[in-house]
Amino acid sequence: MKKRKTPNLVTIAILTTITVVFWVFFSVYRVFTDEPSFNVPAEILEPVSPTLDTSLIDKIESRIFFSEGEVVTQIQISSPTATPAETPTASPTATPTSSPTPTATATASPSP
Predict the structure, then answer these.
(1) In sequence order, what DSSP letters do the residues of 63-106 get, joined into one string?
(2) What φ, ψ does residue 100 adopt, rounded to 5°?
(3) What is the pTM of this model?
(4) Measured between alpha carbons, how far is residue 109 from residues 42, 69, 103, 105 in Å?
(5) Where are stretches of biased composition, namely Low complexity (predicted)?
(6) Among the four 12, 18, 58, 63, which has the fewest Cβ within 10 Å?
């Protein structure tokens, strides 16, 4: 008996359905896993002017004033120092004395 071949339109419909299901699944997944975007105020997003306003810089420099006592000339950073370990002191020890050593004798008594 001859096998019937699936029509091309049915194959395309099945592949399209699978693609749509995956597309929806990944879109929903992305919605749940993406971090929300932050709203940045428009004044921050404005471009910075490339011209240098020297009068503004002069005003800023005139406001900052340090007296002689307020200016730090040298910064000293203290580093940790090791504390000296206690050294044991030598205490006087007893001097060894010579004691008589046992000597061998020529007499021996036989045991019964």
Answers:
(1) H----TTT-----------PPPPPPPPPPP-PPP---PPP---S
(2) -65, 140
(3) 0.33
(4) 122, 104, 16, 11
(5) 78-112
(6) 63
